[in-house]
């Protein structure tokens, strides 16, 4: 059973492949907001993965973030998450993202625990609907 208080952090180098210009979310060579969101999601799901039953995973369902400052290529970013709410299968995380100069993002992220095989089968069934 997952409990509030689980923390995790992941650090990444900002490279061209995760810039707004490359991803298509803007024209500048800075960390893209979608890349920051993906880092928040990854840090969150990885924090609880070991505590799930075999065959279970989590899927993101909601995110509310503020991207507060730009980070250029060549700088490191670090995402820190904490599980702040557990409501059955619903998990809520707080997230803060930093670069080498300070905080660049913050927000909340919601995930649901799912049976991976059932979830994938339901998604795949849409192709035949």
**Helix/strand order, N-terminal first:** EHHEEEEH
Percent helix: 10-25%
First and last CA, distance: 36 Å
Average pLDDT for all residues: 97
Approximately what portion of the residues adopt beta-strand conformation? 35-45%
Radius of gyration: 16 Å
Shape: globular
Low-confidence stretches: none
Say how many strands there are. 5
Assign the structural class, choosing from mainly alpha, mainly beta, alpha/beta, alpha+beta, or little secondary structure: alpha+beta
- Describe the strand arrangement of the main beta sheet, using strand numbers: 1-3-4-5-2
Major beta-sheet overview: 5 strands, antiparallel
| Count of runs of 4 or more consecutive helical residues | 3
Structure commentary:
A 5-stranded antiparallel β-sheet has the order 1-3-4-5-2. The chain contains 3 helices and 5 strands. It is 24% helix and 43% strand. A hairpin with a 2-residue loop joins strand 3 (76-87) and strand 4 (90-99). The chain is of the alpha+beta class and 129 residues long. The mean pLDDT is 97.
Describe the structure concisely.
The protein has about 130 residues and is of the alpha+beta class. Helices cover about 25% and strands about 45% of the residues. The longest helix has 17 residues, at about 35-50.
List keywords for this structure.
alpha+beta, about 130 residues, 3 helices, about 45% strand, 5 strands, five-stranded antiparallel beta sheet
Topology summary:
Layout: E1 7-13, H1 20-23, H2 33-49, E2 56-67, E3 76-87, E4 90-99, E5 102-115, H3 116-125
Antiparallel strand pairs: 1-3, 2-5, 3-4, 4-5
């Amino acid at each position: 059973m997952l409990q509030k208080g689980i923390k995790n952090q992941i650090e990444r180098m900002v490279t061209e492949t995760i810039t707004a210009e490359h991803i298509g979310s803007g024209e500048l060579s800075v960390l893209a907001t979608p890349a920051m969101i993906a880092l928040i999601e990854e840090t969150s799901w990885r924090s609880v993965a070991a505590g799930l039953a075999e065959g279970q995973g989590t899927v993101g369902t909601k995110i509310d973030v503020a991207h507060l400052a730009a980070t250029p290529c060549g700088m490191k970013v670090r995402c820190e998450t904490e599980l702040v709410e557990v409501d059955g299968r619903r998990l809520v995380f707080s997230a803060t993202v930093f670069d080498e100069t300070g905080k660049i993002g913050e927000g909340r992220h919601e995930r649901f625990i799912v049976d991976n095989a059932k979830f994938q089968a339901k998604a795949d069934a849409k192709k035949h609907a």
